[in-house]
Design goal:
The chain has about 290 residues and is α/β, with parallel strands linked by helices. The chain contains twelve helices and 14 strands. It is globular, with a radius of gyration of 19 Å.
Amino acid sequence: MAKTVKIISDSTCDLPQSVVEEYDISVMPLHIILGDQDFEDGRGITPDEIYAWSDREKACPKTAACSVEQAMAMFEPYVNEGREVVCFSISESMSSTAQAMRLAVSQLKAEKLVHVVDSGNLSTGVGLLVMEAAEMAREGKNAAKIVKKMEELKPLVRASFVVDTLTYLHRGGRCSGVTALLGSTLRIHPRIDVIGGKMQPGKKYRGKMPKVIQNYVEEMQDELRAARKKRVFITHSGCEQEVIHMVLKYLQSMMIFSEIIISRAGGVISSHCGPGTLGVLFIAEK
């Protein structure tokens, strides 16, 4: 009997450990660089420790893609088994991770077995695709069918979030337009949307974050009603439990989604968005 397709994602998918284990997803860590120290995302350092370092050093952390050697080590056992693999990366516009994965596939001469999917997204925008792929793998679908479906779903992923501080996005250089927002004398909390694989600032909110997040979620009502009903993510980078619970209760009251998953962003995503960020992510119906 043929083995099911193996699903792998880089660590920016921000899936809870319980989901990773349930769906047998392997996670390839990216790197977080604090001064002269190099950490693997999710291994040896937490987002809160990253924030503490940043506050202490008055500097923003740096991040780096996985290496070709890392990717080869992850793929090789499955290649040796002759098992098909579908591997997801953060948007290629934001990282060279997909390129490293493809080079690893080439080095292993495994193009017929290992398929790299540029998610065109980040955080649980990637995670939504990974879970869909894992469900298809469970159903016995082959890699070609999974990849085809992922390409159909990619433009339907809706990933947005609001940030408490612009400092991390500005210093990280990942979001065009943020520099201009920094010129305001008022405290601004922009909504950031992933569009065409890149982060773009949208509506600007002012005020305290609990109210900002409440307004952000309530204003998504029409978007949420046009979503696929299967699942929605509440993903945050270290928000107060009361705020997370407020968003959860609101989504529950809409009675749209079969599954609402709360996810804490990992080290790489947290390094770029900073503390206090929260997003609601889902797949649109069409």
